[in-house]
Amino acid sequence: MIKPLKIGILGAANIAKQFTDAVGDSQHVTVVAVASRDAAKANEFAALHKVATAHASYEALLADQNVECIYIPLPNSMHAAWAVKAANAGKHVLCEKPLALNLAEAEAMFAAARKNSVMLLEAFPYYFQPQTGVMMNLIASGAIGAVRSVSASFGFTLPPPGIGSSANGTNIRLKPDLGGGSLNDAGAYPLSLIRLAMGCKPIRVLAHPSMDAASGVDIAMMATLFYADGRMAQMSCAMNVANERHAVIMGTKGTLETEYINHAGVPLPSQMRIRRGTGFNLPFEHVQSPCGIATGSGFRFCAEAFAQKIRDRDFAAMQVAEQYSLDNAQVLDALARSAKSGQIVNLD
Hints:
This protein is of the alpha/beta class. The chain has two domains: 5-124 and 301-315, NAD(P)-binding Rossmann-like Domain (Rossmann fold, 3-Layer(aba) Sandwich); 127-297 and 328-346, 2-Layer Sandwich (Dihydrodipicolinate Reductase, domain 2), CATH 3.30.360.10. The chain is 34% helix and 26% strand. The protein has nine helices and 15 strands. The protein has helices at residues 14-22, 39-49, 58-62, 79-88, 103-115, 130-140, 182-198, 298-312, 315-341; strands at residues 5-10, 29-35, 53-55, 69-72, 92-96, 120-123, 147-157, 204-211, 218-226, 232-238, 240-251, 254-258, 272-276, 285-286, 345-346. Helix 4 (79-88) runs parallel beside helix 5 and helix 5 packs antiparallel against helix 9. The radius of gyration is 20 Å and the shape is globular. The model has no long low-confidence stretch (mean pLDDT 93).
């Protein structure tokens, strides 16, 4: 029998509800508690999603001895502080992306995890889709030759007022003090895909933001990433376009295209295809994961994979994940500075 990892959720936002429902019938993880600074909201969440314990403060959740792991779906600006507090309370931490707003925050979070011998993972649901494993295997096998460039994008339309909004009715993605903006909220995804496919971080970046005058956040952004070996990649993110998530990985012997979505088959399958060869007249082949294209919720895949690493005490694997997150945080940090200055920013 597998002993499920007992998870406590720090906050009762919409994404927390999605996460709880996604892992509801898992044998590997179980949500045992939820916390909100509003006791009524915590109780309502617990009753609606069949969570045993509701706490009226975040601190009470961290002190709950029945909780082994904290899931953090808080606004971006709150990730670092509460991840450190959770680690200091002896809890493993599964933190929504972006892990942090800058490299210094990310380093402090991992330092706290190491100090307390707990694990910290940045929650990119698409990472754990079988399709992503197939993509990485194709790249590693040389199916498209050496990767020379990646173009990755993620865009969506902001939800109606009231959904994902703060107390004053403003969407948290439009609040600079909460780490809002397209770069933090959407850009973290294509940047992480670029890091996976390119195999390393860039040495300098140049950002081109489109600013929202009313809120002061970047409503959209495009960026170029420059690598030490002369390769380049392009990233685009936006909060004012139709929903889309797409990447093209260009190699010396072929091309790979993927949607890299979080929840494949919910409600639509995720598409991936490959062109083997350099000619324009060569057809694309559609690629399916071993489980089929429609594979389910990335929240569940992610949580269950994390639970397995915790059970195995696989700190070596977590060190690999840590480096990816540190690289992503450094690139986000550099792009934010480039967006303000209009200049190329070196990661060093």
